[in-house]
Amino acid sequence: MANDEYDFLFKVVLIGDSGVGKSNLLSRFTRNEFNLDSKSTIGVEFATRSIQIDAKTIKAQIWDTAGQERYRAITSAYYRGAVGALLVYDISKSLSFENVTRWLKELRDHADSNIVIMLVGNKTDQRHLRAVPTEDGKNFASENGLSFIETSALEATNVDLAFQNILTSIYQIVSSKSLAEEGADVGKKFDPREGNNISLSQEGGQEPSKGCC
Amino acid sequence: MRTPAETKLRWEETFKEGSNMADLRRAVKFNGPNSPCAAGLRSVCWKIFLLWRTAPAELWPELARESRASYSALCDQHLRFIRHPALLAALTVDPLADDPDSPWITARNDETVRAEILQDVCRLPDEPFYHEERIQAMILDILFLYCKLNPGVGGYRQGMHELLAPIVWVVAQDAVDLETVATDDPADALIFEMLDSSFIEHDAFALFSNIMESASTFYEVEGGTNLEAQQRNTIVERSKYIHEVALIKIDEELANHLRNIEVLPQIFLIRWIRLLFGREFEFEQLLTLWDTIFAYDPTLELIDLMCVAMLLRIRWTLLEADYSVALQLMLKYPAPPPPHGPYTFVDDAMYLKDHFDAAGGVTLIFKYTGKSPANTSVTSPAPSRTSTPSFPKFNSLRQRTMGARSPLSTSARILQQPGSVEALLQGAAKNMMERGEKLGINQAVRGAMGEFRRNVQGFQETRTLARGDRGLFGESGPSLSEHSVAITLMERRNRRLAAMLDESVTNLKLLAASAFEGERETDLETIEMAAAKVQFVSACLEDPSLALPEEELPALNTLAISSPTEVGSSTVALDTTPVVMVSSAVDEIRSTLSTPDSAKGDNTLASRPNELDIEQAIDEIDEMDTDDHDEDTLPPLKSELTNSPPSSVSAVIPDTPPPPIQREQRPNGPIPTRSTLAQSSFAWMLEPDTTSSSLPRRHSSSFASGRPAISGAGSGISSVQKKRSNTNRERNAFLFGEVTADGAGEGGLSADQIFGLQPIRKGG
After folding, report:
1. Degrees (nearest 5) of the Cα angle A205, A209, A210?
2. What biological processes does GO assign it (chain A) (predicted)?
3. Which of A166, A124, A128, A160 shows the shortest CA–CA distance to A13?
4. Which helix (H) or strand (E) holds A13?
């Protein structure tokens, strides 16, 4: 099963205000589905999809959670081990963009300090209702060292690209680290059939390790 | 909306079996599709269970009026400006004043809260009803008012809307439009008044508020403003309790496995609990589940144990699952197949409450999966006698004879087709019940059974104790000759049990043949009698240490041999014995059907005493299935003997713990081969070793079949793990069929395939 043979497994979390379209980004990317009346997320959902980068199979395990701001019952479990985060806002709701700062703070507080973050302005299909100019998103991203993209889960615009970009960034960080340690027989540990797990953190375990005994 | 006549009919249906709580509860539990909630007025039942409780029926209209009036008053108070913005504008208060008490400020805050609620109300599940404008407005107002009145809860929380929506639906279903209903009968008028469609919102609010009295803790967030780095959540504490206290006590192996694969319980429990399982089951099933919860557990105290029960039902799949598969499974809980629909989780929880230990867990696992945890000694009749090392000879012998299958595969080979036997018996039982219904004797029988259940529960403790102390064959060291003696004893015991079952069946059949034309009371006694006997037999089958009447319990002699028409007090007789059976007889019989192949076998050595019972049970079932058996109730001794002469089973240890080495090792943690990563903060990413093993793949290819995956897990991920378990299942199903068909069972499969032997490579 393609799903079970991968070189890397990356956990990526979706965060952002309630109703910005996190669940639909997830379903668009993993199942190519969009549901206009999708239910609000209670607790956590997650799904996976594998993509190819550099002839390597990357299995993305994407987590989606309730956006309600006060709801933090699962914070630590949610961020634990995440190597990437899509911070989503709704381009037609300025409040969701204003709250990006708070989400960023939450990431800094709870996630690994090396987590790769991408700012995502969703719902570009709502052209006539746009409340956040693209420039504002771009500027905020560059000020805070995030990558940036605008998407429409409804129209399937840029959704794959967004995930591909963040997964590629993560992959590049990981593989550059493995290259740096090439001497230490890291290469041997790669077995295309077995999953490798990665870490971006500086202390210990940054080399891809074998997923099986 | 229903016609007045239909509504009246449903009202009568609701109270067919009485209008007090106890009657209704019983009817909800035992009447299936004829439950007062399904065939009658569900909203009225819910009101009784949650709001009116023990209040006599005469008071209901008054209680309803009161609660509606108070809701109307609340609406006037809190929704005035929202419903009539003009009133706000007419006020002489400066809209821009900073006064926190200004109605303008309140109005603006209220609008924020309402916008937040509305966002979720618009995203309710797909039922068209939820998307009617008038219904959404109701749900919005109810939630808003609830939040206004309960600031302690911390405002609106996502999930409350899905807790409320079914309630509104249920109340609206039963509502009648008073303007279209004209009646002269004052009694009818009262009925219609209570179902008045202009009070759907009021009544739904009352029900929702009542449920939230208990459910609000699911939503609580503690210490929100404190400087604590991590907010403490009651739901997280609760999840921890479920995992680290309840599950560990009830099914330690599963709890440990979940811990090892690092599945944090709150990840899935948040949704299960906050929505009262609203997203886990199909809507109709959910309503039936809620019926049962509200009837038996209106304060939602059993929720934790219901979660445990849900985990137990899928424990075998979970034990094979890695992190992703396990989460996927619990976030898309597989629909429990009938007849054990979701409402049975309430029964399970009640059972676990009284049996808060591993034995309770084993019983439930047995009951629903037909398998028993292989490494627990709880099921064995004499746990004190233990350990493989004391029987090295026997074990090596057994291994050779049986193709060295592992205990895991042994247990996996226990009857794999939950449908067959059970369906057969259940069908028969249902038939009987239906016939009884016509004659109006059903309630009485149920009453008697309820009584029996209660008694039985009381005795459960006694039996659990007895199990530990009483070895069936004493404590002397096991030698081969002793084992054959044991087998002989066991067979004798089985024959006697079979005789008892036979007798019951015969009597029931006679009764059926007589079409209940005899004395009603006598018939009733016969039925009770038969039920009692079946339960007794099942208890004996489950627990080999229970002595049969002639040996130790003279009180039961009457029960065993006398003609049912002469026995007036079967329940009394049972009361004096430590006989206990809570789960249905059928399940217990199933549980003993462990290895059909060896039962008919070619000198195979049985590995557990139960394997003898199997043969017995199969014979019994066969006989129940045919009409031509002898009316004589003597044990079918001869046929038994020809089927399996004692000499062919020369050595059996009644209670043999599984050999230790063959069990597939669960990874205790990924430490050995990847310690650096395991110790890092990314350790969670390490899925259990089994995932990436090439072994499962090979299996799945060699046993590939067109059958769809049984597991209900998600569409996105499919896993080799699951596939392998399916393969096992298929293999076992095949085996079973083969054996009963012609007793061969070798069909082209090699021994290790048949026995489900997994090469012992895990952890190697």
Report:
1. 155
2. endosomal transport; exocytosis
3. A166
4. strand A8-16
CATH architecture assignment, domain B231-374? Orthogonal Bundle (1.10)
Give the integer Cα–Cα distance in Å for B564 and B500: 12
What are the φ/ψ torsions at residue A115 (nearest 5 degrees)? Answer: -60, 140
Mutation to test the B interface, candidates A7, A12, A30, A70, most B Cβ within 10 Å: A70
Three-state secondary structure string covering B92-120: CCCCCCCCCCCHHHHHHHHHHHHHHHHHH
Tens of pLDDT, residue by residue over B593-651, are: 443 444 444 443 434 444 444 445 444 444 444 344 444 444 444 444 344 444 433 34
Q: CB count, 10 Å around CB of B57? A: 12
Question: What pLDDT does A123 receive?
Answer: 97
CA distance B544 to A49: 52
> pLDDT by residue (tens digit) across B30-59?
888 889 999 999 999 999 999 998 899 899
CB-based burial label for B519 (10 Å; 0-12, 13-18, 19+): exposed
Least confident of A191-195, B119-123, B608-612: A191-195
Burial of A201 (0-12, 13-18, 19+ CB in 10 A): middle
Report which secondary-structure segment, H or E, holds B206: helix B200-219
Return the C-alpha torsion angle B677, B679, B684, B689, nearest 10. Answer: 60
- Give B 325-344 residues with CB within 8 A of chain A: 327-328, 331
Segment B446-490, tens digit of pLDDT: 544 544 444 444 444 344 433 333 333 333 444 556 666 777 777
Show which of residues 253-272 on chain B sit within 8 Å of chain A, judged by CB atoms.
264, 266-271
As a whole number of angstroms, the distance between CA B584 and CA B421 comes to 13
B722 and B317 in contact (C-beta within 8 Å)?
yes
* pLDDT tens digits, A12-60: 999 999 999 999 999 999 999 999 878 999 988 889 999 999 999 999 9
Two tokens, residue B265: 């319980």
In terms of Cα–Cα distance, which of B300, B303, B361, B312 is closest to B336?
A: B312
Do B266 and A43 lie within an 8 Å CB cutoff?
yes
For residue A140, the enclosing domain spans: 2-210
Rounded to two decimals, the pTM is 0.61
Judge contact between B319 and B325, C-beta under 8 A: no
CA–chain centroid gap for B462, Å, is 24
Q: Mention every residue, 6+ apart, whose C-beta is less than 8 A from residue A109.
A: none
Using CA atoms, how far apart are residues B16 and B444, in angstroms rounded to an integer? Answer: 14
Q: Which of A104, A107, A86 minimizes the C-alpha distance to A20?
A: A86
Q: Is A183 exposed, middle or buried (0-12, 13-18, 19+ CB in 10 A)?
A: exposed
**B125/A199 Cβ within 8 A:** no
B686: contact with A, CB 8 A cutoff: yes
Q: Supply the ipTM of this predicted assembly.
A: 0.83
Write down the domain spans for chain B: 4-219, 231-374, 387-662, 693-754
Give the E-state strand segments of B466-548 in sequence order. Answer: none
Whether B91 and B97 have beta carbons less than 8 Å apart is answered as no
Q: Which residues of A touch B235 (CB under 8 A)?
A: 73
Q: Which residues lie closer than 8 Å to A155 by C-beta, 6 or more apart?
A: A124, A125
Nearest residue on chain A to B723, alpha-carbon basis: A1
In DSSP notation, B672-726 reads TT-HHHHHSTTGGG---GGGG-SHHHHHHHHT--SPPP-----SS---HHHHHHH
Round to whole Å and give the CA distance between B268 and B117. 23
Angstrom distance (rounded) from CA B395 to CA B404? 9
Q: What is the pLDDT of residue B519?
A: 65
